[in-house]
């Protein structure tokens, strides 16, 4: 386990992608010294474009902008700072919002050496990342994730993009950031339910990739829920480590390896689509989805018997749901059959074999799917 | 020199980009056998999306669609073919046209294995290429260029994109095609002035990269202007070879090498911007721009003395202009100073040293620029 015991310890995780490798810096108190971190990674910097979620302009983005505006480069000239805020919420991942950003970048005299800084949750990270990927065929960008989900998942791995009116994440690019700065202090303003929702993805990494981390989570669940600083920092670092490892093995989702990150997600997407987006938070749907997947694995006889009870207990200890009485198998099944992981009517799922190990299982009968859904009602 | 003497010879040029390498196939009679060419490159193909310039739907795109629709894959199942046409002209490289394509791709059940086929000039190639680059973070695409400019320049090298209302090519991606198919027969419907305009880029390759090719062009100018099939084919192949070599050395415009392709273009862009786009065709502006650059090189004493007269004669033999009486140095200079190749008020130009060799020269005084412009009035 990576760990930082002192209040000011910064944990570093590398995403290993050859000449596109980058660091994730995790720790408290990073907003006010942000400009130093960025300048030490990109010494040629002269112009930054800060794109922030409107809801966190105050208290977080303005401090970061202040840090950038008052900093001096080696030759004693100041950085040129442009900034804009984006309305909160999934609807900002749209063509019209993207077009506005493009025009604003042009009006701000953005050139190939400019750097985009995305400050917010997954919405702003995905949107601003794609704006960076596509402006003059790609400029550098930095992720400053401010939700737990964005810290452990969306800010790492280079998936950027927007939605089409009827379909999520259809447009985008694989475009890696040059740096990810995670200031754990910003979690202090994140509402309880949003925070806990992010823990679902943390638990996911334990199940799919790292039994030791899973055991550590079991031992530290109460500290996590209480947002104990050192515990949160270590959990984020381990999660980023897992994601970095998987992304490093399959950057563009071509080998299939990256699919393990979808553990619980085929069920979760079907839940989200059938109850209407927004009723359940994403991490809540993922928790239930992981339970459905684990039940299916048990049912198919491919899963070590202690996994399901341990997973159930950890999810509950993190204040997340393990059942969903409204789950409607009849409505969910057709959604899953439209999912990309379907081949010839049969379904495919990422299923756990034991804590720390999952695999893609194809050829699954719709009746097994229904049974798995019903096991969590 | 590559050459194809028989009517049915197909010349092949490889663009060497590691695992992104691809072939350019150049020859007549390729539209009706197009499906075979594509299927032999991409055996896993099940769905193609043909995006064509409206002006060439008849006579060319429909034949290509017919070839695709009637073809059978190895397992005897037909290809699924979706097709759409895009209005001719630069205004199609817009956000609204791109959004329409994205929605159409979604409605056509496009997935990661689908392949976009761009049939048209540089406008459709750039637009459809970026649609391919950005749909589900990138799907494969094939270029079928139908103007001479697109055959020798825009279809090769992976630059794709659209314009913002006030600025050309601001949005896009480096996204390499999987295959370029150049059917020289389609040039038969291209108007004379558009055809000759494309020859400017052909001459450019001789000056910047290949003295032997330049000499061959001098000897074959009349055959080129008369659109003699074997001559045209060889000129396209040599041009693609030059562009492929430069792109292979500097795929993403990072080393500076790719800048040599801008020979004549800093002047040309300033001419185009000051006379209003459309009055001069791009290749006409490039011809004049190369003359201005050569005059500047002579003036600075860095250019072998026979270059300017030889270049002048070849441009004229290709029916292209070498002077531009309306050139307005006072209007052009500020445009060039806004250009990306300016650093600290001084200007930078790609200038010829001798036939086959150019270099980037910085620190050029505005007075030299004015003199070069005036030398071509
Ligand atoms: N790129 C990827 O790999 C990837 C992975 C997973 C999810 N995603 C995407 O991420 C998005 C979801 O991300 P999210 O859950 O972070 O949602 P989000 O960005 O909408 O943020 C959730 C809410 O929290 C608010 N907020 C953000 N930081 C805050 C803070 N520090 N204090 C108080 N409020 C704060 C936001 O204003 C918003 O209302 C989805 O669009 C999803 O598609 C992308
Ligand atoms: N991607 C690159 O590397 C690159 C390089 C150079 C230029 N470009 C771009 O290319 C575009 C210009 O390309 P273009 O000159 O091919 O223009 P274009 O695509 O607009 O085509 C010119 C005209 O010819 C017509 N046409 C096309 N093929 C025809 C045929 N076979 N018969 C009859 N008419 C035909 C079209 O309808 C159009 O009206 C610009 O947008 C420029 O930015 C891109
Ligand atoms: Zn998720
Ligand atoms: Zn050109």
UniProtKB/TrEMBL annotation, chains A, B:
Gene3D superfamilies per UniProt: 3.40.50.1970, Dehydroquinate synthase-like - alpha domain
One GO process term, biological-process aspect: aromatic amino acid family biosynthetic process
Keyword Lyase tagged: yes
Keywords: Amino-acid biosynthesis, Aromatic amino acid biosynthesis, Cobalt, Cytoplasm, Lyase, Metal-binding, NAD, Nucleotide-binding, Zinc
Note accompanying the cofactor annotation: Binds 1 divalent metal cation per subunit. Can use either Co(2+) or Zn(2+).
InterPro entries: Dehydroquinate_synthase (IPR050071), DHQ_synth_AroB (IPR016037), DHQ_synth_fam (IPR030963), DHQS/DOIS_N (IPR030960), DHQS_C (IPR056179)
Catalytic activities: 7-phospho-2-dehydro-3-deoxy-D-arabino-heptonate = 3-dehydroquinate + phosphate
3-dehydroquinate synthase N-terminal domain sequence ranges: 84-195
Keyword Magnesium: no
Record's protein name: 3-dehydroquinate synthase
Organism whose genome encodes this protein: Novipirellula galeiformis
